[in-house]
Design a protein that fits this description.
Helix content is 31%, strand content 17%. It has 243 residues and is of the alpha/beta class. It has one domain: 3-Layer(aba) Sandwich (Rossmann fold). The strands form 2 sheets. It has a 7-stranded parallel beta sheet with strand order 1-10-9-6-2-3-5, with helices on one face. Strands 4-8-7 form a 3-stranded antiparallel beta sheet, with helices on one face. Bound molecules: 2-phosphoglycolic acid. The site of 2-phosphoglycolic acid has 6 residues, from loops.
Length: 243
């Protein structure tokens, strides 16, 4: 894994946006895998700035989001559909037909999951997958456990993840307990992966991830060690656990 350490969140966001911009310039019809959460917000802001001020053209790009809560309506401000439109899609020129987010309203969720993987395959595969990481090492909603599902699937969220998400909801009962997430099969087929981590809260997991080359379902992100083209970009405070 190649590691990039940046002074602070702003610098981290800029380097992430630069990597996305370079990919789009290299391949205007690139397929991007996109995350939600607090970490990529600065990157999305910088990409919007590049689009508005520097003419970054995203009209050829296709996007696949990593995950979505199950049983949430898309006009709920906490849904990832809402997040993506609010924080990115509504401000750039990605064509709506090229935007893909797991459809959790679908009656037949298993069929939708299968269809999502088919759509990724038909698009030619993901060129650049951008990821955040959970405190527990989850990627998307691939949570630590005994086993890991490789395909897009519906999953129960761990207590730790529900608690981490609770800050965004009025009360604990309103936090979704299930989600649909891309599996590691889909993530690992990406030609290039960019993992972002910001803040001291991520120092321990980044220390664990980069401190060992072993893989374990207890740290889902460790599977990225198998991939040959991964960049881990972190802020200085998230790098505190590194020797
Ligand atoms: P965060 O979430 O960016 O809000 O820290 C990352 C994640 O849980 O994958």
């Amino acid at each position: 894994m190649k590691v990039i350490i940046k002074k602070d969140y702003l610098e981290l966001s800029k380097v992430a946006a630069n990597i996305v911009r370079d990919e789009i310039i290299r391949k205007p019809n690139a397929v991007l895998g996109l995350p939600t959460g607090s970490t990529p917000l600065g990157m999305y802001r910088e990409l919007i700035r590049m689009h508005k001020e520097e003419g970054l053209d995203l009209s050829g790009a296709t996007t696949f989001n990593l995950d979505e809560y199950y049983g949430i309506s898309y006009d709920n401000e906490q849904s990832y559909h809402y997040y993506m439109h609010q924080n990115f899609f509504d401000h750039v020129n990605i064509k709506p037909v090229n935007i893909n987010i797991p459809d959790v309203i679908d009656d037949d969720i298993d069929r939708e999951c299968e269809e999502y993987d088919n759509r990724i395959r038909k698009s030619g595969g993901i060129d650049l997958m951008i990821l955040g990481i959970g405190h527990n090492g989850h990627i998307g909603f691939n949570e630590p456990g005994e086993e890991m599902e490789t395909r897009t699937h519906i999953t129960d969220l761990t207590k730790e993840t529900i608690e981490a998400n609770a800050r965004f909801f009025e009360n604990y009962d309103m936090v979704p307990k299930k989600a649909v997430t891309m599996g590691f099969g889909g993530i690992m087929t990406a030609r290039k992966i960019l993992l972002l981590a910001n803040g001291e809260g991520k120092a321990e997991i980044i220390g664990k991830l980069l401190g060992s080359s072993k893989i374990s379902t207890r740290i889902p992100a460790s599977f990225l060690h198998i991939h040959s083209n991964v960049i881990v970009a972190v802020s200085e405070d998230a790098a505190k656990g590194l020797r």
